[in-house]
Write the structure tokens for this entry.
Amino acid sequence: MLAELESIVGSSEIDHLVRLANFLKNKKIVHINSTKIGGGVAELLTNIIPLKHELGLDATWEIVVGQAEFYKCTKMFHNTMQGMKNQIIPDTLLKIYEQTNEENAQRLFNLLNEADFVFIHDPQPAALIKFFPNRKGKWVWRCHIDISRPNRQVWKFLKQFIVQYDASIFSLVDFARSLPHPQYIIAPSINPLSDKNKELSKEEIEKSYSEFNLDPSRPILLQVSRFDRFKDPIGVISAYKLVKKSIPSIQLVLAGGSADDDPEGSIVLEETLTAANSDNDIHVLSLPSDANITINALQRAADIVIQKSTKEGFGLTVTESLWKSKPVIGGNTGGIKLQVIDNYNGFLVNTPEGAALRIKQLLSDQDLFKRLKRKGKEFVKDNFLITRHVREYLTLLVILQQSSSNVVW
Amino acid sequence: MAENNVSPFEIKDCSVVSIAIGKHALNTKELFTQLLSVDQDSIYYHFWGKLLRTSFSTPEFNNDFAQWVSEQIHDKSLAERLSVLAPQDYPSLDELRQEMLDIIQSSLEQNTVLLYTNAQEPFYFLKLSMVVFDTSKIINEPKEFANFIDDLSYGSLYFHFVDARRRTKNHRDDFSNWIALFEGYDELIDMIVNIDPFFFSLSKLKERVSNIFRTYFK
């Protein structure tokens, strides 16, 4: 992996990673989240852990597990922390959340208590720290979601755990909160060598046309994301319908998988199918969570990629599509703002009408279309590849190890 | 020891990560107030940090304050006045801070609308945390730079050519300071010192520094 990455990012970047990793030799690093399958966090860890191993680091990845009520509670955290209103989490669910964390703490006790560094991803395992009063290592809370305007009641509940960490990491400065420890800003990344992003043959891309009954001679608009209300699949269908009036040949693909920790996915999928209303040019695809090559092929087959989220921690599908030289129309929110630069590699929009306008503009103006396509890949190479991400993680660990904001070796 | 009993130049590398410092401004008045007390490291970050962080490669203005005033407050005049500030022209970051405060205060006095213009996106103050480490690579004589700069990592270039300006007494880069320990390189030193890193990306800066060494030693 390192040798292949070197051919993309250059030898000095890899040398840099090796040197940083050398400072962390023999240190035990543990990452904890709530699912190994589905969603951006699982995907990031799937890529990052093997790279850390190649760098000679002792990194492991574990998950917290719970019953349906635990996931119901953490999905409510997810919704309310991202600003969904009028949702009150019952005390009974909050108790189940703490109990589940306690059970997982018992199961993982030796590993976590002795680890030199523990990364806790998102709210699901955040309460684990409460059960490690004599922990040996530094604990970091890595928040992947947009908590710029959290529900106050829920944030107050979670904050009692978050304040105990040695540091937090947010994808955007806008998400940082008032906390008594350093808050680092580290954007996520993609692995250009993974099944989701590697180069595909023409045959592999063309297979997606026949597999999903798509017509390659007509424009294809694609959104790839879990079926989640914040991803606004209904808004995408509204935008498509507005475009369809003047460009009847357009086809829409809404491709999504599910995540083990998301109990609402099937409900939103049903709502999306209802909104599609049996339109033969709307293809709603519920893909298995390991359909990475299929998603890769769809992204390469598409003319325009849309990610019309109304809240988004980062939105890895945006970077994935830019890497494949696709112009992206993104919701003007969260991490998408970091990736889509208006009129440079895509457009930021606030409404289905705005999205429809930009889709029509891109399909009508070939010069604009080509210009935006060209910029995407270069932009990702400079900013959002896994090597930059791991470099920043390792830098943070070296800093935490020395308990100083600047370290000279 | 190298020629002239000068110790070899030890190439360092650095890696950085951004930290939110919990301060933000929603309008020009708040920007002024926060600037009065914000950590010097944050001022440094918003002038130089653009070179090493995730960002759009060619923003209209070359420091974060000017860019925000232009994009969010829509005051091009103030943005231009802030953007012309070159940090290396000031003996200290505190003097740079004072100059910024003067410029913003004078704008607020002349244009009272600024007092009521709120940004859609706040200005968030950040700072850098840096790890510096040895690369175990050394330079014994100035002419070795000619074949060396192209292989330098961006971290090394940043550390020796940009960050050096706040570490060294004469606010110059490490390369020219080390070469000055040898005799007969005044012309080369002038050429290096005359590069203003403030207007380049690190890739452009590398190209420029490399060209100077290659041309001089060809």
Notes: Chain A has a mean pLDDT of 93. Chain A touches chain B through 39 residues (CB under 8 Å). Residues 2-189+385-402 of chain A form a domain with the Rossmann fold fold (CATH 3.40.50.2000).
